[in-house]
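Structure first, sequence second, as always.
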């Protein structure tokens, strides 16, 4: 069955978020990060107080309200303004895969009460000057900003959350699941262009398409530039006291970018056909021994770490003992099919993850007789929201 869409006369929550941002944007200029954080906080508080309602449609005849109290229980409520679907391991897990939305008239009235401004045109689906309605993964040519967002995440799912929103958000926030900040990803891209391993074109002030040579990138500075269809990235080359030269609409071939920064996990796919370090069996042999689940691509390291953090949050909320390392490796190896046990253990070395994982050491007391049931709760919890990863 197709996923229920947003009803007519409604905004999806990412659209509502962008609408509120645009309602307070001065002359198309970039919004400072603290303003974007304020917008997010105001929306969350409004949903908590039920000044506005966030809705989901389970089928053509059933519309539910996201419980106001759940906005204070969700692990990262702001994610709902970036992703077209709900994907979580926290309070909204029962709504995973559904599209949250608001009624347009009620939301525009609320925005007017906050800003005292007339309704603004709904921003179109553009990211760094390129229409993203089809999805950048289907486009043969990428803009500079689209390429940077990909390098941040190297995951279509996570990158699409940035591509669906204004460029400002990608520049200001590093979402869970992203490998690096916008600034760091931009520096990587410029370095590759300056080394000559990637090629790009741009349009000069006279409207001519120019091929940018590797030597030129050492003198070019990417800058945000306001205009039609939201914020864009332009390149600036200073020329002493004489001003400088500006290049617009920087473009790269998508396949060149993906070839340099492949999707995380692609280079690990061969582990499915290699013997496991612990069992000595390949994935295919495992299937012959009774595992009927299809082989999957290994989970990215960011996915594993995020799942560990979510399990710790789940344990705290349920008031049960967190998974120890042995338990976690066993569950994750089953849930994230194709991911080696050693890779899961490698995540334990992260300083942010280490304190979340109790480890069995020394003499142990009697085993909790309900522990098997608790472990099954963790297993169901991860399985129900696996699509988030």
């Amino acid at each position: 069955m197709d996923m229920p869409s947003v009803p007519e006369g409604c905004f999806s929550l990412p659209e509502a978020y962008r609408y509120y941002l645009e309602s307070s944007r001065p002359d198309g200029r970039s919004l400072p990060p603290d303003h974007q954080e304020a917008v997010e906080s105001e929306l969350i508080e409004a949903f908590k107080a039920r000044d506005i309602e966030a809705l989901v449609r389970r089928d053509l005849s059933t519309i539910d309200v996201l419980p106001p109290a759940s906005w204070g229980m969700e692990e990262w409520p702001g994610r709902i303004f970036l992703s077209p679907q709900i994907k979580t391991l926290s309070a909204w897990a029962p709504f995973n895969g559904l599209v949250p939305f608001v009624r347009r008239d009620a939301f525009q009235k609320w925005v007017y009460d906050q800003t005292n401004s007339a309704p603004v045109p709904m921003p179109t689906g553009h990211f760094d000057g390129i229409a993203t309605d089809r999805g950048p993964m289907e486009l043969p040519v990428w803009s500079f900003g689209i390429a940077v967002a990909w390098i941040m995440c190297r995951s279509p799912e996570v990158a699409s959350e940035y591509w669906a929103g204004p460029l400002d958000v990608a520049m200001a926030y590093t979402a869970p699941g992203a490998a690096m900040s916008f600034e760091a990803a931009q520096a990587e891209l410029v370095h590759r262009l300056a080394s000559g391993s990637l090629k790009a074109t741009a349009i000069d002030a006279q409207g001519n398409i120019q091929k940018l040579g590797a030597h030129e990138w050492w003198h070019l500075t990417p800058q945000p530039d306001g205009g039609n269809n939201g914020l864009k990235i332009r390149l600036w080359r200073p020329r002493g006291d004489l001003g400088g030269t500006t290049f617009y609409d920087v473009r790269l071939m998508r396949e060149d970018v993906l070839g340099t920064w492949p999707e995380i996990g692609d280079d690990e796919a061969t582990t499915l056909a290699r013997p496991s370090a612990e069992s000595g069996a390949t994935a295919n042999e495992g299937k012959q021994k009774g595992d009927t689940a299809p082989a999957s691509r290994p989970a990215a390291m960011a996915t594993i770490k995020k799942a560990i953090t979510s399990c710790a949050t789940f344990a705290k909320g349920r008031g049960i003992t967190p998974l120890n390392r042995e338990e976690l490796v066993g569950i994750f190896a089953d849930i994230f099919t194709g991911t080696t046990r050693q890779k899961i253990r490698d995540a334990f070395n992260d300083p942010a993850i280490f304190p979340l994982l109790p480890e069995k050491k020394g003499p142990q007391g009697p085993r909790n007789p309900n522990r098997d049931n608790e472990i099954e709760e963790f297993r169901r919890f991860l399985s129900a929201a696996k699509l988030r990863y």
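Margin note: The chain is about 35% helix and 15% strand.
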